[in-house]
């Protein structure tokens, strides 16, 4: 009973209930996320391909500098697209707690906030990863990349929330680092929710895989067909669970920022 009450009173559960009670606003968040993915993974690469083909690249030693400048501008454009959609989604999240009036007045500062947080770590991590032998890169990523990503995820989410609550760029950064590396209860809940979700999924996939193997043991072709469907379904389910956790965590981090301000 104590564990049940603990889960029920957790910030993750409260964030889930808040999302469940506002399906229209959550639907708009999902719509903006779909638009972001389409822009980031389809429209931007097409724009990159078209622009790269139209540019008159230098044939001398200046080519590498032109390429690096082009790549730098493209990364800035990626961050801007991310900033534009996230800025809009944050207004939907804020509207769950209070009445809001949307404006792009602070979009430029929000863009700068993301550049400050994302760019240095991205450049440093890729530089370090490039100096490691390819055979050891997956281990390096698991040991260092995942913890760094989780901390950056918390810092970024909190900084966005503080900023959208009216804090200055400097205060948003200061408060997000302070809360992430301090006594941040909601961050522990977030990690716990992620670990629990994947443990449950892993167990279900193991059981499903075992049942498929047993039920199709006498027909190899049927096994291959069933396994192909199982693999596709597993990928869809995992992506759906990850997105669901991210969606709820946005509200969770926003709640944490509101409580901490």
Describe, in short, the structure shown.
This protein is 84% helix and 0% strand.
How would you describe this structure in keywords?
single chain, 261 residues, mainly alpha, 9 helices, 84% helix, 0% strand, globular
Topology readout:
Elements: H1 2-8, H2 11-20, H3 23-54, H4 63-94, H5 107-130, H6 137-164, H7 169-181, H8 185-215, H9 220-260
Helix pairs in contact: 2-9, 3-4, 4-5, 5-6, 6-7, 6-9, 8-9
Structural description of this entry:
- This protein is mostly helical and about 260 residues long.
- The protein has a domain at about 1-20 and about 185-260.
- The protein is about 85% helix and about 0% strand.
- The protein has 9 helices and no strands.
- Helix 3 (about 25-55) runs antiparallel to helix 4, helix 4 (about 65-95) packs across helix 5 (about 105-130) and helix 6 (about 135-165) packs across helix 9 (about 220-260).
- The longest helix has about 40 residues, at about 220-260.
Helical content class: over 70%
Q: Can you count the helices?
A: 9
The geometry reads as: globular
Mean pLDDT: 83
- Count the E strands: 0
- Largest sheet entry: none
* Strand proportion: under 5%
Compute the gyration radius: what is it?
22 Å
Q: Point out poorly predicted stretches.
A: none
Q: Report, as a whole number of angstroms, the end-to-end distance.
A: 32 Å
**Structural class by sheet pairing and helices:** mainly alpha
- Helix and strand string, N-terminal first? HHHHHHHHH
């Amino acid at each position: 009973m104590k564990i049940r009450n603990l889960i029920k009173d957790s910030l993750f559960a409260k964030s889930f209930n808040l999302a469940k009670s506002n399906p229209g606003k959550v639907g708009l968040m999902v719509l903006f996320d779909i638009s972001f993915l389409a822009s980031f993974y389809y429209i931007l690469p097409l724009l990159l391909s078209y622009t790269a083909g139209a540019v008159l690249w230098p044939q001398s030693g200046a080519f590498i500098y032109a390429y690096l400048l082009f790549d730098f501008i493209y990364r800035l454009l990626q961050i801007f697209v991310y900033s534009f959609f996230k800025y809009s989604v944050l207004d939907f999240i804020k509207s769950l707690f209070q009445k809001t009036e949307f404006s792009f007045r602070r979009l430029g500062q929000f863009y700068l906030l993301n550049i400050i947080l994302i760019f240095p770590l991205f450049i440093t991590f890729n530089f370090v990863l490039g100096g490691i032998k390819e055979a050891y890169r997956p281990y390096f990523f698991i040991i260092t990349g995942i913890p760094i990503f989780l901390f950056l995820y918390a810092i970024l989410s909190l900084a966005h929330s503080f900023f959208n609550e009216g804090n200055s760029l400097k205060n948003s950064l200061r408060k997000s680092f302070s809360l992430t590396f301090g006594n941040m209860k909601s961050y522990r809940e977030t990690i716990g929710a992620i670990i629990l979700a994947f443990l449950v999924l892993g167990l279900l996939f193991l059981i499903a895989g075992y049942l498929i193997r047993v039920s199709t043991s006498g027909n190899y072709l049927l096994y291959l067909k069933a396994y192909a469907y199982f693999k596709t379904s597993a990928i869809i389910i995992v992506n759906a669970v990850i997105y669901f956790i991210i969606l709820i965590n946005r509200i969770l981090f926003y709640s944490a920022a509101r409580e901490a301000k």
